[in-house]
Amino acid sequence: MQKSISIVIPVYNEEGNVATLFHEITEVCITQRYTYEIIFIDDKSKDNTLQELKKLSPAKIIAFRKNFGQTQALDAGLKLAKYPIIVTMDGDGQNDPSDIPKMISILFENDYDMVSGWRKNRKDPVGKKIVSRTANFLRKKLINDGIQDSGCALKVYKKECFDDLSLYGEMHRFIPALLKIKGFTIGEMVVNHRPRLHGVSKYSWRRGLKAFIDMISVWYWKKFAVRPLHLLGGMGLIIILFGFLSGLITVYEFAKGQDMSETIWPMITLFSFLIGLQIFISGLLADMLNKSYYESRDEMPYSIKEVIITENIKEVESIST
Fold first, then answer.
1. Quick check: 154 and 190 in contact, CB under 8 A?
2. DSSP secondary structure of 268-310
3. Side-chain-facing half-sphere of 314: CA atoms under 13 Å
4. What pLDDT, in 10s, does the model give residues 22-54?
């Protein structure tokens, strides 16, 4: 079984939680005799989170120039991770590091590419539970990624999962669906979910709305991303067909001697053909844009101010980027 792991943790305003979490992770890794690295990504916290992170050793700390969001923070950490097994988790202390060895065992025993945590007994406020369950219900209906709780940050991956995966928006919630689309195998394990001891939840209705929009994007990606013409072209042809039928009615009315200025059918025919043709052409353009997307995806949607590697508390190496 692989014993080299990278633990990636995005954080934002978690000054009261990062030290405890770091020591819990370190204890688990030492007990399991892992070769490990802990990567924190500070998403431009407004409190003293970055200062608290610099006290921890050994660790790698990515500091953003501004607040870019959890997905971008996670993506930056994943790009820095060097070991063949990657663990992701939240920085609020609600994920339990003691679950990591069991998840890694399930990963290899079942030859999965990823194992996702399932917070079956959540320690969250009632309102947040209701929102989460509603989101999970919609996610299962729309994208059917085969897991119970895609919002759980505690996940274990084989590194190759991220060789060709771009994250944006609030897509960190839908990584299992994105991987399933690419053919990776996914497992799930019930994990311990602990109450938050310090700080406040970063969840808001705006973030939930963005996540819902991204869910629609994943649904589209799953159904039509490879050939968007299948969706737009199909819609265009249906409208053109409707225009053809209305054209037949127009011809029939004309043959009966109907005054064309007194009927709406010629206008319906004309607009149906024009709108259908425009949608069909949009599908062709989307196909071409899709090809360009696959050929060039080098720009990162975030900016890193510095990467800090704390190998020794007394000596901090800062790498400007």
1. no
2. HHHHHHHHHHHHHHHHHHHHHHHHHHHH-----SS-EEEEEEE
3. 0
4. 999 999 999 999 999 999 999 999 999 999 999
